[in-house]
Design a protein that fits this description.
homodimer; 376 residues; alpha/beta; TIM Barrel; 2 domains; 8-stranded parallel beta sheet; 15 helices
């Protein structure tokens, strides 16, 4: 049993679930830290266990460019390479090709592009994307999709829906290894009918789980919510649902209430390196002068290494001094916070109190922050 | 008993010792990692214990500039600030003023200089240096010294010797807290007679330990050894001896044989961040193409986190990708190596086999690397 629903919120579409793979289980709703280049920045992957994570995301695009999927295969796969015995989801490379690579040429067989590192030309096809992820040994495999930015005209979105379905079919024709699970991707932009159409086409192909792509690509958050609401009714209730690239805590809780199980985002790790820290009292800019002599922990209730051992003044000093340790402690803290939000969401769903959790001031929306960010 | 000699090498001046402070003991010979700005780069200080360190060095100059010694005092001292319950030695700020700060004006009362961070003017006196270190709560306190570069004419070195003695006297007049131990600094450049004169003057003032400054400031390593040999006979045998800023393993072993007990250097941490790794087979540039698909650990016999968990190929990938984790794993490795060199030196002294250890190819000299480096 790849996925089972273990609890339901009586007042929303939210549910708790257990996702099982040969690299262990994941309690959902779950957030996955992003390990773009085979490292969740500033951490060893194995340290994620202690923070409460059993699942991370890695980027096929980045690993294709460097060190190369064949190299990783030669070295025994991505789990061994990065020293992580938990679950790995890899994206298909599509989002990065559309947002990061240069000299892009899209056609029916795939996308030609130039590496953002050195300009090397690649031709990423649905088949190659699947092969990359097979070589990496990902537990959860995403198909190459056509992911337009926001805004885009309806014609472009219609094309993306059509092409995403065609590519999904081509990807499915590439065999995977035993134990690798495929998720489909639904496109459709902010058009309710196109989301429904895409969801219908993709689910008809038969994946083990479903992701919503093209969310958080620049659209207002209320349109993101609408897009999710438009697609979810067409997704099989027994399969896990994943909104890609979303990660503001308040927005994740809203989408959990719409029936979403999985999220990923660079927000906690990137914000950490920029000195923005999530706490039970809201967000903190650690560089602020007011923390200069503040002996208190960042968040007194937080069990992370940074909060147990250091003052706000020390964290500020490390950040102002450009110390590597600032990135590390801040990352440990933010990821601890994100894990706790997901744990609290699961507990709230199981006890029927998700609405109360969602109403906390801690999760009030920050509209400027809902855009999906580039891989970490 | 601040320091006691616990073993002697029958064939050289090398000795093992135990240095005791109210923050615990240090087995000598010992190397101290450098935590310039209140952080040994990429690590938490408390992680040093597991690597085998009980002593670290912090820089009074850097902490004076940012966040300020009064701020650290308000927050309970440097130990609490950086979460380190082991021993802390602070340098006086002199070396950085002479090598890093701008618009320097040296006179009999001290040195005026402009902060390298923002140009703020400071006036560092022997008294202020002592006060800074008192405020920080250092266990081992260094006096402000006059540290000319190499080469400098003999007149300049004579002046430095005279001024270093005068400043040492002024520093001693500033009371310290109970439990703080003062070390004197001997100057004299590469002039044997001036080293002897400085050693005589400084020991006459009565410190609990003695450091040799102005070594590794650009002179050839054989002159460094000569300078040490010129001073050691004038230092009381019952006090610990420290050569500041030296850290090439082979050179440390040579100086241990001359009777030196303590060392500090940014070499292992800075080299780590630059991808130069110390191993039992010599140094490795991890970026080399040959490691691209090398599944072996960096150093099979090394017990560090990097060697136990990752391949050379992964370490290379992290370094080539500019990942923060590269700095961290490489630092953990190099500091583990340096701790093991000191442990092996202590064992060799106790068993009378230091000459054998010194003759290993692992420690063959690398002449271009013997210069003292700026604070980390």
């Amino acid at each position: 049993m790849f996925f089972q629903v273990t609890a339901r919120d009586p007042k929303s579409l939210a549910r708790c679930g257990l996702l099982q793979t040969c690299h262990g289980g994941v309690l959902t709703p779950a957030f996955m830290p992003v390990g773009t280049q085979g490292s969740v920045k500033a951490l060893e992957a194995r340290e994620l266990h202690a923070l409460g994570y059993t699942l991370l995301l890695a980027n096929a695009y980045h690993l294709l460019l460097r060190p190369g999927h064949r190299t990783i295969a030669t070295l025994g796969g991505l789990h061994r390479f990065m020293g992580w015995d938990g679950v790995i989801l890899t994206d298909s490379g599509g989002f990065q090709v559309f947002s990061l690579a240069g000299l892009r040429k899209i056609h029916e067989e795939g996308v030609e592009f130039a590496s953002h590192l050195d300009g090397t030309r690649f031709h990423l096809t649905p088949q190659l994307s699947a092969e990359i992820q097979r070589d990496l040994g990902s537990d959860l495999v995403m198909p190459l999709d056509d992911c337009p930015p926001y805004p885009a005209d309806r014609k472009r979105i219609e094309e993306a829906v059509r092409r995403t379905t065609a590519w999904a079919r081509l990807g499915l024709a590439t065999p995977m290894r035993a134990g690798q699970h495929r998720l489909g991707i639904v496109q459709g932009g902010v058009h309710r009918d196109l989301r429904a159409r895409s969801a219908g086409e993709i689910t008809a192909l038969g994946f083990e789980g479903y992701a919503l792509g093209g969310i958080g690509v620049g659209e207002p958050p209320e349109l993101a919510g609408e897009s999710v609401r438009a697609a979810v009714p067409y997704l099989p209730p027994a399969a896990p649902r994943y909104v890609m690239g979303i990660g503001v805590p308040g927005q994740m809780l809203e989408l959990i209430a719409e029936g979403i199980d999985l999220f990923d985002c660079v927000l906690p790790t990137r914000n950490a390196r920029n000195g923005t820290l999530f706490t039970s009292q809201g967000k903190i800019q650690i560089k602020r002068h007011e923390f200069r002599e503040d002996p208190r922990p960042l968040d007194p209730g937080c069990p992370c290494v940074a909060c147990r051992n250091y003052s706000r003044a020390y964290l500020r000093h490390l950040y102002m001094s450009g110390e590597i340790l600032a990135s590390r402690l801040n990352t440990l803290h933010n990821l601890t916070y994100f894990a706790s939000v997901m744990r609290r969401a699961r507990e709230a769903i199981a006890s029927g109190t998700l609405d109360r959790l969602r109403s906390l001031g801690e999760f009030s929306p920050c509209p400027r922050e809902t855009s999906r960010m580039e891989a970490d």
